[in-house]
């Protein structure tokens, strides 16, 4: 997809650069082929994301004080936010999944927000990245569900509160919606990130045209503010949906 | 004027996917509006339901994102 986007730009579109060019995966150290071991800009920005999380969670809290510094209070707020979320949505017995959910949240929110820096790259704007995150959640929920409840986990698909006549139909719909979960879970995040960044780049293309450049620059500022909000809300939504799915695994009764 | 009829149909289809955005807008607006009217009737219960609000918005919005995905597939993959 990305190479064709570059191809489209060559064909003489009216914009100075193609809005989808920013999503091209390029090897960092020469060459054009991308293998599974090639170090690309995705690898670089995932590394920066992990280092930024480490800096916040390890360095800022290393000399923890009773009166927290700014870094320490941000780290504490993030911890408390996710802890309260999993406790409220999934239940108190789900706290053993907290490290996993917190890792997911921090990775997504940092990669979303770091991707807003000019000239940077957003790993979460690629379906290949988010589908892995979503499939791991899906497999975790399925495995934990069957490990804890055995065949009773299938009761998730059998809506016993519905009239008996419509239960088979509902079971079919429930099964389909269960298997569509990783698709919608991943596409929501990647689609939001990709759409937002492409919109900013489209307005940046308009900014080169003198007649509309003041309007375009104001629009970029507005969209940028909205993107900061969206980057945070999408991380929140991904995490809270993980909590909702985990709740199905721990308490499958309908 | 160049290109062929398939190219024409492709771009018309990409334009038509923008209708999906309207559907997502109605869905998200419906969720937020109903939340607000419920929250104004019973403000004390509103804070406990913000998570539900965001989940509902995310589900409604995902379908708008799917239409964006269809547009991308038509532009770059077909």
From TrEMBL, chain A:
Entry-linked InterPro entries: ATP_synth_F0_asu, ATP_synth_F0_asu_AS, ATP_synth_F0_asu_bact/mt, F0_ATP_A_sf
Q: Where are the transmembrane segments?
A: 36-60, 97-121, 127-148, 200-221, 228-247
According to the UniProt entry, its GO molecular function terms are: proton-transporting ATP synthase activity, rotational mechanism
Alphabetical UniProt keywords: ATP synthesis, Cell membrane, CF(0), Hydrogen ion transport, Ion transport, Membrane, Transmembrane, Transmembrane helix, Transport
> By its UniProt entry, which CDD domains does this protein fall under?
ATP-synt_Fo_a_6
Question: Per its UniProt entry, which superkingdom is the organism in?
Answer: Bacteria
Can you supply one Gene Ontology CC term for this chain's record? Answer: plasma membrane
Topology term for the membrane: Multi-pass membrane protein
Recorded hits in SUPFAM superfamilies, A to Z, give: F1F0 ATP synthase subunit A
- Localisation per UniProt entry: Cell membrane; Membrane
Q: Which Pfam families match?
A: ATP-synt_A
Q: What does this protein do?
A: Key component of the proton channel; it plays a direct role in the translocation of protons across the membrane.
Annotated NCBIfam families: ATP_synt_6_or_A, PRK05815.2-4
The family classification in the record reads: Belongs to the ATPase A chain family.
Q: What is this protein's name? A: ATP synthase subunit a
Task: Tell me the organism.
Answer: Pseudooceanicola marinus
Give the lineage. Bacteria, Pseudomonadati, Pseudomonadota, Alphaproteobacteria, Rhodobacterales
Gene transcribed to yield this protein? atpB
UniProtKB/TrEMBL annotation, chain B:
Name the residues annotated as site: Reversibly protonated during proton transport: 61
Taxonomically, which superkingdom? Bacteria
Pfam families this protein is in?
Answer: ATP-synt_C (PF00137)
Record field: transmembrane? 12-33, 53-77
Membrane topology per the entry is:
Multi-pass membrane protein
Q: Where in the cell is it found?
A: Cell membrane; Membrane
Any idea where the V-ATPase proteolipid subunit C-like domain is? 12-74
Indicate whether Transmembrane helix appears among the record's keywords: yes
Major location (coarse): membrane
Q: Does the keyword Ion transport apply?
A: yes
Cite the GO molecular-function annotations of the record. Answer: lipid binding; proton-transporting ATP synthase activity, rotational mechanism
Q: Which GO terms describe its cellular component?
A: plasma membrane; proton-transporting ATP synthase complex; proton-transporting two-sector ATPase complex, proton-transporting domain
Q: What keywords are annotated for this sequence in UniProt?
A: ATP synthesis, Cell membrane, CF(0), Hydrogen ion transport, Ion transport, Lipid-binding, Membrane, Transmembrane, Transmembrane helix, Transport
The similarity annotation says: Belongs to the ATPase C chain family.
Relate the protein's function as given in its record: F(1)F(0) ATP synthase produces ATP from ADP in the presence of a proton or sodium gradient. F-type ATPases consist of two structural domains, F(1) containing the extramembraneous catalytic core and F(0) containing the membrane proton channel, linked together by a central stalk and a peripheral stalk. During catalysis, ATP synthesis in the catalytic domain of F(1) is coupled via a rotary mechanism of the central stalk subunits to proton translocation.
Family matches, as HAMAP family: ATP_synth_c_bact
Which PANTHER family does the record match to this protein?
ATP SYNTHASE LIPID-BINDING PROTEIN, MITOCHONDRIAL (PTHR10031), ATPASE PROTEIN 9 (PTHR10031:SF0)
Name-wise, this protein is ATP synthase subunit c
What organism is this sequence from? Pseudooceanicola sediminis
As recorded in Swiss-Prot or TrEMBL, the protein's gene is named atpE
